């Protein structure tokens, strides 16, 4: 065989030999493959950095809203940037300069836009040194107007297990929190509605056109021959007790109509709702008056949650019987009700004996709760040891707004939590 033939065969064999192709191809593909993996790793780091930035900027927005009335724009901007730098991860903090802070003192908003660069690691081989992340947040500084009705069970069962003492302290704690949260006159106003089977009003209201005077009371002698006397309530004899309105007005808010069936029946007080029961205090920001009214509460009488809830709604409505409330359409107005009871419904104007649970009274309470929530009032409910848990849970605006209390000592922390939630500055994304 000639040398030329041998060379030709060798070249042919080399051309057909593929034993090293896989290693060669892997080597060629390794660089872009590492780049893809690096990009995935770095984008994951950027995603984590963005979450940290979101949390820091939300926190800064709340802080800014809290301090906006105390600081100038320049001071507030400096505090926001310092806050962000203190709360960012080290690798993001080093690439963060300053946030854009927009303060609108007319609309009372603070808007923060922040950008940062996350240094890359493996992705640098592809020429990408940094990945940009950004976040924004906006808050107001607590100038929602708040109207809050405290609808509080004052029945005899509240005397057990220290419940009334705990309720008083919890109510006073809540009032203090709301007072401290107030930044403008009348920004936060509270009403107090103690209830049993009836509510008690100040007797100075006896000339109010929305009261009617047709309720009767029958008393019988205790000796033979037995004689009974029926008496109709009069303005002179009235001690402030008011019973349920005629059905179906008993589960709705009144409007001061002169129609007799829609009016509020002035009534006799009795053992189910004595005249010594604490009186309703309409919406007010007189913190001393609120404190004094809480301190007059004492446990006595039987339970009619419906009348408490409806009179709580009456204090939140601008129409009669009380007119202190603002219309629901008022900008930035939030209306709330905290309804607390420690027992079952036992008696209203028509049903129940004052001691055993009454499903008929429960049905009226359900209707009242639904009507109240339909007006836009946010309802919190609290069950203290006893009572219809399902009824109260369904009465709340959300299941998370229903609280179970198993010991009186839990009342104050719950009231503080609710007060904090109601009064806190909220983000307005």
From TrEMBL:
Q: Which domain of life is it from?
A: Bacteria
What InterPro entries does the record point to?
Tad_N, VWF_A, vWFA_dom_sf
Which SUPFAM superfamilies does UniProt cross-reference here? vWA-like
Where are the membrane-spanning stretches?
Answer: 21-41
Keywords, alphabetical: Membrane, Transmembrane, Transmembrane helix
Domain VWFA, chain residue ranges per copy: 147-418
Entry protein name: VWA domain-containing protein
């Amino acid at each position: 065989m000639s040398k030329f033939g041998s060379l030709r065969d060798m070249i042919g064999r080399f051309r057909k030999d593929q034993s090293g192709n896989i290693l060669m191809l892997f080597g060629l593909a390794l660089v872009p493959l590492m780049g893809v993996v690096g990009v995935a790793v770095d984008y994951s780091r950027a995603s984590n950095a963005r979450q940290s930035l979101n949390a820091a900027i939300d926190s800064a927005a709340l802080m800014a809203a809290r301090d906006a009335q105390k600081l100038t724009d320049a001071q507030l901007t400096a505090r926001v940037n310092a806050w962000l730098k203190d709360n960012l991860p080290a690798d993001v903090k080093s690439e963060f300069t300053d946030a854009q802070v927009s303060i609108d003192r007319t609309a009372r908003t603070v808007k923060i836009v922040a950008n940062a660069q996350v240094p890359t690691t493996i992705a640098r081989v592809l020429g990408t040194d940094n990945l940009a992340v950004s976040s924004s947040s906006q808050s107001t500084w607590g100038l929602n107007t708040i109207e809050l009705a405290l609808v509080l069970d004052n029945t005899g069962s509240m005397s057990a297990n220290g419940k009334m003492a705990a309720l008083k302290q919890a109510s006073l704690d809540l009032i203090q929190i709301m007072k401290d949260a107030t930044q403008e006159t009348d920004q936060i106003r509270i009403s107090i509605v103690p209830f049993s089977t009836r509510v008690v009003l100040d007797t100075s209201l006896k000339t109010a056109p929305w009261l009617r005077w047709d309720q009767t009371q029958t008393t019988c002698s205790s000796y033979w021959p037995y004689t009974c006397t029926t008496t109709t309530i009069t303005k002179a004899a009235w001690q402030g007790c008011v019973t349920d309105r005629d059905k179906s007005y008993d589960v709705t808010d009144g409007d001061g109509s002169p129609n007799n069936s829609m009016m509020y029946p002035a009534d006799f007080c009795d053992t189910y709702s004595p005249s010594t029961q604490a009186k309703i205090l309409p919406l007010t920001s007189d913190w001393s008056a609120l404190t004094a009214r809480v301190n007059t509460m004492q446990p006595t009488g039987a339970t009619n949650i419906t009348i408490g809830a409806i009179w709580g709604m009456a204090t939140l409505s601008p129409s009669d019987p009380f007119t202190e409330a603002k219309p629901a359409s008022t900008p930035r107005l939030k209306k709330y009700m905290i309804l607390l009871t420690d027992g079952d419904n036992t008696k209203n104007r028509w049903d129940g004996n004052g001691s055993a649970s009454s499903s008929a009274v429960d049905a009226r309470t359900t209707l009242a709760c639904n009507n109240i929530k339909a007006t836009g009032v946010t309802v919190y409910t609290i069950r203290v040891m006893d009572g219809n848990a399902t009824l109260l849970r369904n009465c709340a605006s959300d299941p998370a707004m229903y609280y179970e209390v198993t010991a009186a000592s839990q009342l104050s922390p719950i009231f503080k939590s609710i007060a904090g939630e109601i009064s806190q500055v909220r983000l307005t994304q």
